[in-house]
Each structure stands twice: as structure tokens, then as C-alpha cells.
Amino acid sequence: MNLYGENLAYSYCNGDPLFQGFDIVIHPGEIVGLHGYSGCGKTTLGKILAGYIQPDVGVVKLGEAPITARGFCPVQMIHQHPNTSIDPRWRLRQVLSSMRGNLAQTMEWFELDPAWLVRYPGEVSGGELQRFCVARAFDDRTRYLVADEITTMMDGLLQAKLWKRIVALAQERRIGLLVISHDHDLLAKLCDRVIQLSIPCQWSKAE
Ligand SMILES: Nc1ncnc2c1ncn2[C@@H]1O[C@H](COP(=O)(O)OP(=O)(O)OP(=O)(O)O)[C@@H](O)[C@H]1O
Fold first, then answer.
1. Taking the mean position of all CA atoms in its chain, how far away is CA 58?
2. Are residues 193 and 35 in contact, defined by beta-carbon separation less than 8 angstroms?
3. How far does the centroid of ligand 1 lie from the alpha carbon of residue 24, in Å?
4. Ligand 1 centroid to residue 19 C-alpha, Å
5. Which SUPFAM superfamilies does the record associate with it (predicted)?
6. Rounded (10°) angle between helices 126-137 and 156-173
7. Atom from ligand 1 closest to the CA of residue 13
């Protein structure tokens, strides 16, 4: 089933719209890049596609069915900073407890040591915690993944390794990926196509 964002518009606090009449379609197993100047609304669009926030106008659908805020969302979002999406008071075992699927196998795939499950999020490195978030997103019910600048805290070698694993597992399960990044090289290497959310503003051009 395709993921559709149709005629999307959103603005915060009745301000100027970040985007209007925006359409996007992602196919199962497809890797789509999302690029645009800082502040143009890439994360916001990701949150709308993953059901975190409702668009002012438009609809997000998986096949024919609109995405709802209730229950498990088949569009999972992985955030830039893993500590913003994990309760610091939970041990990592608890963080992964609601996940459906073969946890041991997924952890092994992302090189997560089972001994770390007794630790709190603050007791693993940022890169390790991000790999927990990635593993958690590969729930058996996940059909699409929105990856928002997810490897910016890693060195080049680790980035490449993690993306190789993500892409392999996504392709195996026919999961579609939306990769949000400022990194042209990464997008060119990974993606089947890249969408530009908006043209650069004057301030960005001058920089
Ligand atoms: N909760 C919020 N309330 C009000 N404004 C917000 C909120 N979240 C984001 N914004 C604003 O909306 C705009 C778009 O933010 P968003 O994070 O979607 O952009 P982005 O393209 O992902 O940026 P970056 O590339 O820098 O991560 C920014 O100007 C931001 O300050």
C-alpha cells in the first residue's frame, strides 16, 4: 500500500503556512529523500506523515485508509535526537517492551548488546541509543519509516554501516523510507529520488 500525503498545509500558531497544497506519495520499499533549507518544515511534514500532528488542510492515507492518532502507527518516525523520544526513567528493556517482532534478531541486526537492556537511556552512547530507536521502529507492523536526520551524531563509518543495515531490512520487508537530511551526498547515495520541500529563503541563499 502506498503512503499518500494529499494537499497538505500546516502553520504553527496561526503563522504563515510552512507548506500548502503539498502532495507526496511513497511506494512500498521505495527510498525517498526530503531536502530543504533549515526551518522550511521537513520535521513538521515528517510528524504529519507519522500521525503526530494533524495537518490544517489535507489528509495522510495508507492506501485508502487515513492515518489516525490512535493505536500503533504503521508510519514510524525516528528523530534526530534519540533522547527526545525515549523516557529517561525507563530501562531500555521497557523501551522495547511494546515492540512486536523478533526483538533478539532485530537487536543483533543493529549490533545492540542484550546486556544493555538493563541500562537507562543515559547509560549508553548517543549512537547506541539511536540504534535502539531504529530497532524499535522496525516493529512488525511498520510499513513506512520517516528518518529525520538520524545519523548526524555519528562518524562517517558508523553512518554508512547503519544505513546499510536499515536499507537492507527495509527492502526485505518492503518498508518505504522517507530520509530527511541536509546531506546531499547521503541522499544521492541512498535515495531513489529526492523531493525539495521548498526553495531556499533569501537568508539561506546569502549564507
Ligand atoms: N511546536 C512549534 N511551535 C511553533 N513553531 C514551531 C514548532 N515546531 C517547529 N516550529 C517552527 O516551524 C518551522 C519549521 O520547523 P521544522 O523543524 O519543521 O523545520 P526543518 O525544515 O525540519 O528544520 P531543520 O532542517 O533546521 O531541522 C521553524 O521555523 C520552527 O521554528
1. 20
2. no
3. 19
4. 12
5. P-loop containing nucleoside triphosphate hydrolases
6. 10
7. 4
